[in-house]
Amino acid sequence: MIRSITPVLVLALATSVVPVAATAQPSEGVVREGAGARRASLDAMELKPFPADLWGGVGAWANGAPLTSADTSGKPVIIVTWSNWYDASLRALTAAQRVADQYASDGLIVVGLHDDEEWDEAEGVAKSRGITFRIAHDTGNKMRAGLSVDQDPDIYVIDRAGQLRFADVDSSSLEQAAKIVAKETMEQAGKINQTLAEKAEEERIRANRTAAINQQADLVNIPELPFPDPSPEAYVNARWPKLPTDSGRQEQPGFFALPGFGWYPPKPPATKGRAVVAYFWNPDVPSTSRMVKEMDLLQRERGRDIAVAGIVVPRETLTGGSSSFTDETKRALELELLGKRTKEFADSSRLAHPVMFDPTGAVMSSVSGRFTATQSPTYAVVASSDGMVRWYGDSKSPSFKAAVDAVIENDPGVKARRAAEQAWLKARGK
Questions:
Q1: Do 234 and 353 have their domain in common?
Q2: Residue 301, burial from CB neighbour count under 10 angstroms (0-12, 13-18, 19+)
Q3: Is residue 70 very low, low, confident or very high in pLDDT (cuts 50, 70, 90)?
Q4: What mean pLDDT is predicted for residues 140-156?
Q5: pLDDT tens, 8-66?
Q6: Given a cut of 60, is residue 72 above it in pLDDT?
């Protein structure tokens, strides 16, 4: 039996761009995993009654008696799938123990749903790691199938009203998801669909109001205004997205700076008081070249608060392979041609954001070389206005947009720049 699990990287291959806000599931600040058809299926399960019949797939229990409907009535429940031989799921189990302890007084119930295989060893492994909450045997992996589990650990959260509130939560959002369902009342949970619909309507009205303001005063054309730089402490104390982890170790943010030259048009992105989104692509790697329109839409939608930068790199930099040319002269010609193609593309595309050619991949390696998490071809970096990396990874993942939103919302530089712009508009009666 194989004792390793290889993650499946799902690349979205859509040929048209749909604004994210039109289809996004309400996040409540919780990052979900999954993409494509599977994510759409999980979204459809959320905010609906949890299928109680799925508990029928549990064949045995440890660390407590079997759960009954009376046990869970009016209480939040978190399900964490795990396998005793898979380290990543064991780390998630430890994290789940922390939230179980933290919100025990709020009635939170945590269940570790073990894989069908090697159940006989599960209780001992759980005990050795200090796990005190119930663990359950997913006989035949029936419950996993019903929840569309793709790889341990997957995390599912049920609220006090018995609704599947969050399906397949990213491990970094476990605490946030637990806090939401543990601290809300039964009444609040029961009205969550109405509450989220009202918030969505408020957001729509606010967006329309902003659009109307933009018609009167084009915010994109506001001059770059001076404003005092926030203190280092303001950045330290801001609430940033959690960086990915490697082997259970939380990465620390590093500094990321865009070059001041080599851009098309020949002007570097305006980054003062803005978050930076840098993505890396190559015209001969289709999955990455499709990112250009999506990132340009992001720039057009959020250009007041972010600076998007498209960086063309050699194909092997993205794919991890080697150059198609071993001869140095041919290699130089290959790079020269790629540089020309980059400029021609920029000149003809009328993008809202600049692009540049990085022949050595130095800009990308300044980030990916420092971090050890698995890299995908559709790679992007989100940095705050002080130049610190706040997120990196697959731009197709749901956590990318959540990270962009979180950085914009919490960035002290963005707030300072906004205040200066509002004062400028107010002084002109706009």
A1: yes
A2: middle
A3: confident
A4: 94
A5: 222 222 222 233 333 345 677 788 888 778 888 999 999 999 998 899 889 999 999 99
A6: yes
Per-residue pLDDT at 425 exceeds 90: no
Per-residue confidence (pLDDT) for residue 75, from 0 to 100: 96
Nearest to 131 by CA among 144, 151, 114, 146: 114
Q: Residue 333: inside a domain, yes or no?
A: yes
pLDDT of residue 323: 56
User: Is residue 200 assigned to a domain?
Assistant: no
323-326 LR contacts (CB < 8 Å, sep 24+): none
Distance in angstroms (rounded) separating the CA atoms of residues 325 and 184: 60
Residue 140 shares a structural domain with residue 232? no
pLDDT digits (tens, 9 = 90+) for 214-227: 544 455 568 888 99
156 lies in some domain: yes
Helix (H, G, I), strand (E, B) or coil at 28: coil
- Let me know whether 224 and 108 are in one domain: no
Q: What is the DSSP secondary-structure string of 206-249?
A: HHHHHHHHHHHS-GGGS-----PPPPHHHHHHS-PPPPPEETTE
Look at the chain and report how many structural domains it folds into. Answer: 2
Cα 15 from chain centroid (whole Å): 22
Portion of the chain with pLDDT greater than 70, in percent = 84
Angstrom distance (rounded) from CA 333 to CA 54 = 60
The answer to whether position 27 is within a domain reads no
Strands (E), 56-190: 58-62, 77-82, 109-114, 134-138, 155-158, 163-167
The SS3 call for residue 388 is strand
Q: Are residues 247 and 372 in the same domain?
A: yes
How confident is the model at residue 206, as a pLDDT? Answer: 66
Look-up: residue for tokens 């809202």? 352
- pLDDT, position 350: 86
Q: Domain residues for 237?
A: 219-427
Whether the CB-CB separation of 274 and 385 falls below 8 Å is answered with: yes
The answer to whether residues 186 and 243 belong to one domain is: no
Instruction: Find the CATH number of the domain harbouring 173.
Output: 3.40.30.10
Q: Give the residue from 190, 207, 242 where a domain finishes.
A: 190
What residues pair up with 380 in beta bridges, in sequence order?
279, 393
Strands 355-357 and 263-264: antiparallel
Q: Given 172, 190, 208, which residue is the final one in a domain? A: 190
Q: Is the pLDDT of residue 104 over 90?
A: yes
